[in-house]
Amino acid sequence: MTQNTATNFVHEHIFLGQHHQRNERKVWLVIALTASMMVVEIVAGTIYGSMALIADGWHMSTHAGAMLITALAYLYARRHAHDPRFTFGTGKLGDLAGFSSAIVLALVALLIGWESLVRLANPIPISFEQAITVAILGLAVNLVSAWLLKDDHSHHHHHGHAHDHSHDDHDHENHHARDNNLRAAYLHVLADALTSVLAIVALLLGSIYGWLWADPVMGVVGALVIARWSWGLVRDAGGVLLDMVPKHDNLEAEIRSAIEVGGERITDLHVWQVGPGHHAAIVALASAHPRAPSYYKARLASIHELSHVTVEVEPLPIAKAA
Predict the structure, then answer these.
(1) What CATH number matches the domain at 2-241, 1.20.1600.10, 3.40.50.970, 1.20.1510.10, 3.20.20.70?
(2) pTM score, two decimals?
(3) How far apart are CA 52 and CA 15, in angstroms?
(4) Where exactly does CATH 3.30.70.1350 map onto the chain?
(5) What is the CATH number of domain 251-315?
(6) Alpha-carbon gap, residue 256 to 102, rounded angstroms
(7) What pLDDT was estimated at residue 87?
(8) How far does Cα 170 stand from its chain's mean position?
(9) In 10 A of CB 251, how many CB atoms?
(10) Where in the chain is the domain with CATH 1.20.1510.10?
(11) Tens digit of pLDDT for each residue in 17-53?
(12) Which residues, including other chains, have CB under 8 Å from residue 197's CB and lie 6 or more apart?
């Protein structure tokens, strides 16, 4: 009887995003599309002499490699979700992959910028009509890929544990369930789309006005925009890896509001993200009339982003009358 009672408190630490497997399938599909278009653009850019087209094709190859990181992270996190060696599950693996992809994105921006500056100093002839055709095809592939990977960030999720949270039996809307792994793949194809648009504009200007310099200038513009996107992803994914609570997240205030009622006072509080839409919290509190931890966990049941809660309760010393 005692063993069965103890079993009821055992729980798993599966903090993957709700659409983890769906997102994984999307990324594999986009990798196939990107790799196919990469070959077409590199070959066409070499034949027709377009730096913008060659740059688009080569950085497409790096994006395909970066998205491979995304896909493998999804695969590994899913296959090891039940591995007890991961204390808080594998939900943050996507943020690690997203951070790595952001570094790749920054390198892509650096390479495009450098090659464009070299071509600006040493322009070469361009076969405009053929290059424009291929660039438009590349843009179409990029837009389809971006549409496949776009995340509305407003989906529902279900917690995979058996704590004393009454909201575990229902799905709730969560506006903080950003998947940085999927976001990384999305930014890579968005960068592809941007460089395709810039290539088309540069090629049109070159064919109409003979401005050969427009092609590398557009490459520099694209590099600056991609670098900015990369920094945003580094900042957000790195913050999750360092257990930083986002500024826009008011979880700590919500926890204090729910717990600090009457004589209870929180003495130590730690909140961090353990997966897309999942947060863990350690709450240490002192009370003049302490109750079981389950009582305080029940108070936090309405905070849907909390998926794992540990509560420590200490009695407040009772002042003796003089």
Answers:
(1) 1.20.1510.10
(2) 0.76
(3) 42
(4) 251-315
(5) 3.30.70.1350
(6) 35
(7) 85
(8) 25
(9) 19
(10) 2-241
(11) 778 888 888 899 989 888 888 888 788 778 877 766 7
(12) 139
Sort 61 into a burial class: Cβ within 10 Å, 0-12 / 13-18 / 19+.
middle
Q: What string of DSSP letters covers 142-161?
A: HHHHHHHH---S--EE--BS
Contact (Cβ atoms closer than 8 angstroms) between residue 22 and residue 150: no
Report the percentage of the chain scoring pLDDT > 90. 17
Confidence of residue 319 (pLDDT cuts 50, 70, 90): low
Distance CA 61, CA 195 (A): 13
Both tokens of 41, joined, read 């653009």
Contact 72, 84 (CB under 8 A): no
Which contiguous run of DSSP H or E holds residue 286? strand 278-287
Which pair of structure tokens corresponds to residue 167? 């909201």
Q: What one-character DSSP code corresponds to residue 14?
A: B
Residue partners of 278: CB distance under 8 A and separation at least 6? 15, 91, 157, 159, 305, 307, 308
